[in-house]
Amino acid sequence: RVVGHRGTKTQHKQGNANHENVTAIITICGNGSRLKPTIIFKGKHFQSKWQNNNLICISENGWTDGESALQWMKKDFNLQTQEKANGETCILFMDGHNSHYSADLLEYCKGNNIEILGYPPHCTHALQGLDVVCFAKQKGCWKDEVNKREETTGRGVNKEDFAKVFGTAFIQAMTEDIILAAWKATGLIQFNPNIIKPEQMRSSEITSTKSTFPLPQNSPTRAIMTAFREYKFTNLDNSSRPSTPVPGPSQFPDSPSMLNQNLFATPFQDRMNIDPSLYPSLLTPSKHMRFLRNGLSSTASGSFLVKKTKATHEQMSRLIQNPTLETVPANIPRPDWSLL
């Protein structure tokens, strides 16, 4: 029996909060067989209770790195495929992650008659048989085994349980029929390039890219960006200085003090048209900081950064707002691919 909200089609089950990265290197063979998976735990020291008739190693983040990939090639892949290869070249299709192609690993493969073929970038969704066929069933079997384990023991799956629970799901999922179907669905064995349809290799949807920030920037950030991009004066600065025509290069006197005096009597829009390469004093760090201070002092949530009085925790919690997700722009120009 499941107790949930009336009218809700999907009832979610609370899972174990004890989550950690664990990597399983899985290899399937063209004849429908499979190799024993290698499990990589996160940690610095190996514990014997983790082992349960599986090849297990450790890394600091629980992912595959250059050293673990080399050890997998030596102690796992090569030992399990030598007899199958029977002296012939062993072909290995492998993802294009850089940790899989270290110089030491390639040298070892070259000396042991192993040839590595890497999948092209962004094509594993169509060419990687494990992704296309096998892992979907693997995830279902894994979920069932985790539920059985939790119902039996009353607790979540820990490291000492992982090898047995994962191994049971792995044996159930990686059957000969599933493995052969994976090779056929990707057109690798038997080789059939017509399996891959054009729609599988089409470009990404236009709405998958955005030309703006993923989150709207808060007022202090916008003030800083404006200060270093536009050097804009505040309203008080503009209103406190009289407006005069824009001086040309010949109208500026040689005296720096006279230059600054004439410049600050010029409206902001006209000052932007003055070439800074002719007058380097326009871009001094002190002016940047003055523009920045004026911009921050005009914002509610950034004024405490330039004030001498210290901001309290109560003020901070009131001023700093939580960011909200920005919507995708409605009208995104469609690229003209014919220009290529």
UniProtKB/TrEMBL annotation:
Gene3D superfamilies: Ribonuclease H-like superfamily/Ribonuclease H. One of its GO terms (molecular function) is nucleic acid binding. It comes from the Eukaryota. Residues 21-158 form the DDE-1 domain. InterPro entries: DDE_SF_endonuclease_dom, RNaseH_sf. Pfam families: DDE_1. This is DDE-domain-containing protein. It comes from Dendrothele bispora (strain CBS 962.96).
